[in-house]
Design brief:
Elements (H helix, E strand, L loop, with lengths): L2 H18 L15 E6 L6 H15 L4 E6 L2 H14 L5 E4 L2 H9 L11 H7 L7 E2 L2 E2 L2 E7 L1 E5 H6 L9 H13 L3 E4 L6 H14 L2 H10 L5 H15 L19 H6 L3 E6 L3 H6 L12 E4 L14 E10 L5 H10 L2 H9 L17 H12 L3 E3 L1 H4 L2 H15 L5 H15 L1
Parallel strand pairs: 1-2, 8-9, 11-12
Antiparallel strand pairs: 3-11, 4-5, 6-11, 7-9, 7-10
């Protein structure tokens, strides 16, 4: 299905929904009740879950007659439910948008509200971070957390293995993997069962192998003919061949439970994991003491690919933004504006829930590793949006599927590129 066909389908479903209730409703039988605001998010562990529940209660207290129905769910569950909601045209009033091609589809289908005027002050305060959620000069979502992906690691396990400093090149990375194995420590966990954590490796090897102009051009042209994309897969083949990953990594989930990739890192079962700025908050919810790795938490950027054409200081990243369904009540916009306020973003930072976008909250990031990430984010010359987000669901999904097959030894680097290009050609 081409992108235009898919968008037309979404728009048709939205039109049908408008005949019976409200397109972009709340996902429940109470969609026509303007006093109800439905809000979906993925902070399903403490302290984030409780923090957002309190924010909702405070909003209700200041807005008599408004009932905020909060649904906190695991990230993968939320993504699946949102996909279904967009296909049916029955979208929650407030939800998380990742930007890029996905947002473009939702905008074209008329499912998301333009916030340019209603949230003009907040948009000005956020500055350049809103760019990923804009289309044709209009802003459709307000980013509340923007960060970069890198390796989170257990400082104690590194010390136990005699590792003095994190690796900065791929050769050094392989040396670290060897040292950890020699010490009887599983080097790396990856939630390949959910595909996107595995795909992040190819995204990063492409970012290290391809010049910035090639990557930026591919986002608009959907042309993956540059040899650097195959070269990225060859680097990833070498990573997989080094056997750094936890046993059963092909079916390991990303974040759910103690045996997930995040759980293995949080409980000292592995030394490191490639993940985004959300990792400390996720790990907190996977340990009995609610602290995750605590003071043992370290972070380092993805290593340089020797001879690669990409900038070794560029980062892979992105973020999450609050969007409002097109037909949501006006009070939903007020709640989103509250979520980007100085007070709420400061609490967000203090609870280690992510990297705030409101400049007033930057100094409240309490976790030293997250504070380091904030510095890396702000100093990076270029941040590449997650490929599956940048290219949209169809192309990104095909890419992720084939990368997962490369991890299992069932696809070659060329086949990853071919599958991605085939999906892209269908979008044109």
């Amino acid at each position: 299905m081409s992108r235009s066909t898919r968008v037309a389908g979404l728009a048709s479903l939205c039109a049908v929904a408008l005949m019976t209730a409200a397109c972009g409703g709340d996902g429940s039988s109470e969609a026509d009740d303007a006093s109800t605001i439905t809000w979906w998010h993925n902070s399903n562990n403490e302290p984030g879950k409780g923090y957002y529940e309190q924010v909702a209660k405070d909003f209700e207290a200041d807005h008599p007659g408004i009932d905020v129905q909060v649904s906190a769910m695991a990230h993968e569950d939320m993504v699946s439910k949102l996909d279904a909601a967009f296909q049916s045209g029955d979208v929650p009033d407030i939800y998380m948008e990742r930007g890029g091609g996905e947002l473009a589809d939702h905008v074209e289908a008329g499912l998301v509200r333009d916030l340019s005027e209603d949230a003009a002050d907040e948009i000005e305060n956020l500055g350049g971070s809103v760019a990923g959620w804009q289309s044709e000069g209009k802003t459709y979502a307000l980013p509340f957390s923007v960060g970069v992906v890198g390796f989170w690691y257990n400082k104690d396990l590194f010390e136990e293995a005699g590792i003095d400093a994190p690796p900065t090149t791929m050769d050094e990375f392989y040396d670290v993997v060897g040292q950890l194995k020699d010490a009887g420590i599983a080097p790396v966990s990856v939630g390949a069962g959910d595909k996107w954590p595995a795909a992040h490796y190819w995204y990063y090897t492409a970012l290290r192998s391809c010049p910035q102009d090639v990557l930026e051009g591919a986002v608009t042209s959907l042309d993956f003919s540059d040899p650097c994309f195959v070269e990225a897969g060859e680097v990833l083949e070498d990573v997989v061949a080094a056997e750094p990953f936890n046993p059963g990594f092909l079916t390991t989930p990303a974040q759910e439970g103690a045996t997930s990739a995040s759980g293995l890192l949080a409980t000292d079962k592995v030394a490191m994991e490639l993940a985004g700025h959300w990792e400390p908050g996720v790990m907190q919810g996977l340990t009995d003491d609610g602290k995750g790795l605590g003071e043992k938490t370290g972070w380092f950027p993805f290593p340089e690919v020797e001879g690669g054409g990409g900038d070794p200081t560029a980062q892979l990243g992105g973020g999450d933004a609050w969007a409002v369904a097109e037909s949501a009540p006006d009070e939903a916009v007020d709640l989103v504006k509250l979520l980007l306020s100085d007070d709420v973003q400061t609490g967000f930072a203090e609870n280690d829930m992510g990297l705030p976008t409101n400049p007033a909250a930057g100094g409240a990031v309490s976790d030293p590793a997250l504070a380091e990430l904030l510095k890396v984010r702000d100093e990076s010359p270029y941040i590449q949006l997650y490929f599956d987000t940048a290219f949209g669901t169809s192309v990104g999904g095909a890419m992720n599927d084939e990368i997962a097959l490369l991890f299992s030894g069932d696809a070659t680097p060329q086949e990853v590129v071919d599958a991605t290009q085939q999906a892209a050609d269908q979008e044109m």
